[in-house]
Amino acid sequence: MATEDQGPMAQFEIKSLIDLNVGGYDISYTNSALFMTLAVICTFSLFWAATRKRTMVPSRIQSIGELMFEFVAGMVKENVGKEGMKYFPFIFTLFVFILFGNVLGLLPYSFTFTSHIIVNAALAVFIFIAVTIIGFATHGLHYLRLFCPAGTPLPVAIVLVPIEIMSYFIRPVSLSLRLFANMLAGHVLLKVLAGFVISLGIFGVVPFLAVGAVTMLEIMVALIQAYVFALLSTIYLNDAVHLH
Amino acid sequence: MELEAAKMIGAGLAAIGVIGGGVGVGIVFGNYMTAASRNPSLKDELRTYAFLGFALSEATALFALVIALIVLFT
Fold it and tell me: In chain A, which residues have pLDDT < 70?
């Protein structure tokens, strides 16, 4: 792995593993796609192992599955309410996919697929469009009351409505950018510190300890960012299902 | 001035905006600690809002960082 002098940004390069070309479109199987497949396989095997024997007093792996399920179920029920539970499978899939994406990227020599803005943008735009459609489907044109709550005086409304519209449309931007920037900054920091380990010789012990500490921080950031992505999605869903 | 030099200066200036994120995160968690010590029974409910506030505040800081990276690398 002679990757000297490529800088800290070389780890985000997308390399195609199997070249595929259909009708002029490049649909190669890249390292990003490989890690997405790995995330799906890890999720599937975790929950398959967790649900094999359904004992009342859960075994260790079953309680891991139960903990994750209850955590996300509690979050959805608390933020959207009982009628929001029909969106629970979607939110749960979203949470677990992003969680495994973030965490798998912390293994050495791996690739974090959530550190690319296009992946996060795809997820965030999907959520934005889904929430908008759900809002219009549930409330019809009354959904536009989201921008101008009932009973606001006209001078306040003139200022409020453009601000509300802007903050509504910036949702997918901020949602995707938050996750992207957290993952990017974390991994760049790790790479820069790791570069110091070799170049300082015997004193490389200090950056090595720093890499260990920053990795622990990055594990926490990976968990929190996956949770925040899912939490904000349920909050936007709540706005659509119950207008404020 | 060379483009490379201007990029470096621009990135350095843009990264100053991250200070706001540090202040904001400190305020959020400081207030969470105060609130949890006043009313320990609400600890878990407040923790949800603490993490939400942390993420939103951190996001603004990271917007500044992303601008710095855009300036530096394009």
Answer: 1-5
Rg (CA), chain B: 17
Assess B49–A contact: CB distance below 8 Å, yes or no: no
**Residue B7: CB atoms within 10 Å:** 14
Mean pLDDT of chain B: 92
For residue A1, is it within any domain? no
Sign of CA dihedral B52, A147, A126, A86: positive
Count other C-beta atoms under 10 Å from residue A94's C-beta: 20
* Interface test with chain B among A95, A120, A167, A178, by most B beta carbons within 10 Å: A178
Q: Which domain holds residue A87?
A: 8-241
| Partner residue opposite B51 with nearest CB, options A78, A181, A227 | A227
Whole-angstrom distance, CA of residue A11 vs CA of residue A13: 6
Side chain identity at residue A135, one-letter code: G
The CATH T-level fold of domain B18-69 is F1FO ATP Synthase (1.20.20)
Q: How far apart are the first and last CA of chain B?
A: 17
A62 falls within a domain: yes
Q: Can you tell me which residue has the tokens 């925040």?
A: A228
Residues A224 and A232: their CA atoms lie apart, in Å, by: 12
Please report the pLDDT score of residue A60 as a whole number: 87
* C-alpha closest to that of A212 among A106, A114, A136, A100: A106
Q: Measured between CB atoms, which of B48, B62, B69 is closest to A182?
A: B62
Tell me which long-range contacts A214-221 makes (C-beta under 8 A, separation of at least 24): A214/A186, A214/A189, A214/A190, A215/A106, A215/A190, A217/A186, A218/A106, A218/A186, A218/A187, A218/A190, A219/A103, A219/A106, A221/A102, A221/A182, A221/A186
For every residue of A100-129, DSSP letters joined together read HHHHHTTSTT---GGGSHHHHHHHHHHHHH
Domain count, chain A: 1
ipTM for the predicted complex comes to 0.82
